Amino acid sequence: MNKILTSIRRTPFQSLATFSLLFFTLFLSIIIIFSLTFLYGVLGYIETRPQVTVYFKTQTAENDIFKIRDELTNSGKVLSVKYVSKNDAFKIYKELNKDNPLLLEMVSSDILPASLEVYAKKPEFLPEIANFLNSKPGVDEVNFQKIIIDRLINLTNIVKKSIFIFFAFLIFNAVITLLTIGHFKIALKKDEIELLRFLGATSFYVKKPFLAEGVFFGLTSSIVAFSIFSGILFYFYPFINSYMKGINNLSLNFNFYQLTVWPINPIFLIIIFFITTFFGISISTLATLLATKKYIK
User: Fold this and answer.
1) pLDDT: which is higher, 112 or 93
2) 165 compared with 94, residue with greater pLDDT
3) Final residue of a domain: which of 144, 176, 210?
């Protein structure tokens, strides 16, 4: 550690430039990672809601509704279908209007429609399911939030492609700049390196201080970037929480684990920190190895 601090004091401006570049790179990376996971959490939340709700005319027989339900189930494009009877609809209505007795007196289960809540296996199947339901007799209305779902899917695809391009540019720019700074710092110690090599020092022994400095900058910049991001996040947490009112949970489902994205939890933040730290140390170490290659062979 003393050697690292001594090296930083000898080249303060180059060290500050290295830290600043890594800090802004990692800070932007944290924002992107958080935004992308949040967006996928919202998409997953929408996909767990009833994606298509079909309401039937009050005179439609229950057996006819069950036939449509079975056809949907056997299509291979539906994850599940939930039947909501007139009585179930009336219970939901009473719960929603329990504070308004006048509305409860005006409505009975006989005038409320039965419905099916349909969950598709893939969002791409939703238009076909909606068209199928619209063609069936006894159907009164098909509620399908096509525009919202299509826009969210398109937004997710655009964000994924944009992030890939941005990350590639970010890594390239960071490595090139760090490589230039590293070349300058190593050139200042050219005589010292040649002396060590003359005395029989191995390449790794000569490279070790530069690698240790690269790891130090990657780690410290990651800690600072994550700390500032966490402070901003918790400062705006009440505002975000009020905006997300009604959405109790956003999560990413993996085969082996379900990661909660919202509300904010320590595990999610720890994962972001480790990803950011790994990214910072990796690009800093890569740039150092490329920089030392010219002078240390």
Assistant:
1) 112
2) 165
3) 144
pLDDT above 70 for 148: no
The encoded tokens of residue 22 equal 């890594």
CA distances from 240 to 8, 44, 263 (A): 40, 18, 10
Shortest CA distance to 57 belongs to which of 140, 120, 118? 140
Task: Report the 3 state secondary structure along 30-54.
Answer: HHHHHHHHHHHHHHHHHHCCCCEEE
Domain assignment of residue 17, given as a range:
2-46+150-295
- Reading the block at residue 185, the tokens are 């710092």
Domain final residue, candidates 95, 126, 144: 144
Is residue 140 domain-shared with residue 155, that is, in the same domain?
no
Q: Do the beta carbons of residue 220 and residue 19 sit within 8 Å?
A: yes
Report the pLDDT averaged over residues 76-88: 81
Q: Give the per-residue pLDDT at 8.
A: 62
Rounded Cα distance, 171 and 160, in Å: 16
Top-confidence residue, 156 or 127: 127
Please tell me the total count of domains within the chain.
Answer: 2
140 and 163 housed in the same domain: no
Query: Which of 69, 187, 38, 181 minimizes the C-alpha distance to 133?
Result: 69
